[in-house]
Specification:
The protein is an alpha+beta fold and 534 residues long. Among the domains are: 91 residues; 210 residues, Alpha-Beta Plaits. It is built from 18 helices and eight strands. Strands 1, 2, 3, 4, 5, 6, 7 and 8 form an eight-stranded mixed beta sheet that branches.
Length: 534
């Protein structure tokens, strides 16, 4: 029975895959038809670029690269500058994914950007600036160098200005969130907070849902308003006090008689004024104390939002968090593939909405599987298991989370394609090993991990294919008795030997409910429980 169920599941997956392939084939057939029939050279070049982008989803280093180079050659020959720029972007993205020449890729992007700026194609200028910003962020993990974060921030700032000129507010809100993340890495805490506040202001103006970080700011925004209200009240009391003092002076000037009755009245007035001044001073002290309490609460909310509670408690008690070394941590990178093409076809408002839905779901999935989110930037997501509190089952947790994330994206993609809407794919890379974990920032704390394990996880993700969950040899050796795998080939490493990667097929049939390879059964849970004490 289990074998029959597994067979049916595999057949369903094959049918779904066939449908996706059929849709891609239909798009390519349409483009080939245009290529044969058109007599307009610009249409011919643009079609070559569109075909290159389509092939890049499956065969980036083969047909896609050849088509992009054909488009570039013809665009240069017929002086179709926009076609030249489109081809350069395609070639840059293909070279970057293939991990060939980083310098060539960034040169292609910048050359394309210069052409778009010359032609005043504002939408493509903004999109290319974001691509370059994302490129420099990823480059940090491949070549650990803090200047890459600075370069990334520079191009996201340019993209922000471009989106502002176009009037694309939702894009601006997303860029502000990315800039906040980059400011945090650069220990520019105040700028990080200001960027998040700007993202919140834009989303509030648009009446949109808040993302994770901006929802946090909303929690203490009302407290700021209370402070302002208390400040206004304080000023009112001070003005009253000043008015009373002025009145007293006038009374003294106007009173010239030494009448005892008048003197007694003045004495009473003085006592009353002194009493009122004391009340004003007491209220002012109370307001100042309340303001300090709110400020302290604000700082704790900001800090607590960006680090695990275990880490925050140590910072609050000891004033700092000591960096720690962990021998067994699983690092997960997820990247939304085909994001650029989808963003052009989806529209800016819908794009930001869908991106929020995706990352909010990823947050829920990683939380349910004992992982913590490290960061999001642009269309990339990073999480880790086995920190800050150690556990032995983190490789299993990371794979279960990755499989669920992939199923979620596949289901959404099938739903969108059924109604003729574009949607992105996801690719995920996982590696397990030694890392250093710590906190950066003096006021706005950010919890992060470093080490070769992190860099390798990023490489595994970049070299995986759409819809795949790829793991390193280190992770595979720890979980091979629980999951089924396919060979994924080698991943070339700069200045190192190539490493093996493996593609996760699913949970072993005998360890899954109904033998479908999706939900773990009690036997699976028992084996994982034994790992806790290994």
């Amino acid at each position: 029975m289990k074998k029959i169920t597994l067979l049916l599941c595999l057949l369903c997956l094959m049918v779904l895959s066939t449908q996706v392939k059929a849709q891609q084939c239909a798009r390519l057939d349409s483009l080939r038809r245009i290529l044969r029939l058109t007599k307009d050279i610009k249409v011919h070049i643009n079609t070559l670029n569109l075909m290159a982008a389509e092939y890049a989803k499956e065969d980036p280093e083969g047909a896609a690269l050849n088509l992009a180079r054909q488009a570039l050659k013809q665009a240069k020959k017929y002086k179709h500058e926009e076609g030249v720029a489109d081809a350069l972007v395609n070639i840059g993205l293909i070279d970057y994914k293939a991990l060939t020449e980083y310098e060539e890729a960034i040169k292609d992007f910048k050359d394309a950007l210069a052409i778009y700026e010359k032609l005043k194609l504002k939408e493509k200028v903004a999109s290319t600036q974001e691509i370059i910003g994302k490129f420099y962020f990823d480059l940090f993990y491949l070549r650990t160098d803090n200047t890459n974060y600075k370069s990334s921030l520079e191009y996201y700032q340019k993209a922000l200005k471009s989106r502002e000129e176009i009037g694309q507010k939702k894009h601006m809100a997303k860029i502000y969130e990315v800039m906040s993340e980059l400011h945090g890495h650069l220990n520019q805490d105040q700028k990080a907070i200001e960027a998040l506040e700007k993202a919140l202001a834009i989303l509030e103006d648009l009446g949109e849902n808040k993302t994770n970080n901006t929802r946090l700011i909303a929690k203490y925004k009302s407290k700021y308003e209370k402070i302002q209200s208390l400040d206004r009240l304080n000023k009112v009391y001070l003005y009253i006090g000043i008015g009373l003092l002025v009145a007293l002076v006038l009374v003294l000037l106007l009173t010239s008689t030494k009448n005892r009755k008048v003197a007694n009245q003045l004495k009473d007035q003085n006592q009353q004024i002194a009493k009122q001044n004391k009340e004003i001073e007491d209220k002012a002290r109370t307001i100042a104390q309340q303001k300090d309490l709110v400020e302290n609460a604000k700082e704790e909310i900001e800090s607590f939002s960006l680090v695990p509670s275990y880490v925050f408690n140590e910072i609050r008690e000891n004033g700092r968090y000591e960096p720690r070394q962990y021998e067994k941590v699983s690092v997960l990178f997820a990247d939304l593939e085909d994001f650029t093409n989808v963003s052009q076809g989806m529209g800016s408002d819908k794009l930001v909405e869908e991106l929020n839905v995706t990352f909010n779901k990823f947050d829920a999935i990683t939380g349910n599987h004992n992982l913590i989110k490290i960061k999001t930037i642009g269309d990339s997501y990073m999480a880790a298991g086995g920190i800050p509190e150690k556990n032995n089952r983190n490789p299993v947790d990371a794979i279960l989370a990755a499989l669920e994330m992939t199923r979620f994206i596949n289901e959404k993609r099938a739903e969108k394609e059924a109604s003729g809407e574009p949607y992105w794919r996801v690719r995920i890379g996982i590696n397990t090993g030694y890392v250093t974990a710590g906190v950066v920032g003096d006021k706005r704390f950010a919890y992060d991990v470093w080490g070769e394990t992190v860099n390798t996880a990023k490489l595994i993700e970049i070299k995986s294919e759409s819809g795949q969950v790829a793991v390193s040899q280190q992770t595979y050796d720890l979980v091979k008795d629980l999951f089924d795998f396919q060979g994924g080939g080698e991943v070339e490493m700069k200045h190192k030997e190539a490493i093996e990667k493996y593609i996760v097929v699913g949970i072993k049939a005998e360890l899954s409910i109904g033998g479908d390879g999706i939900e773990p059964n009690e036997t699976f849970r028992g084996k994982v429980g034994d790992m806790e004490f290994a």
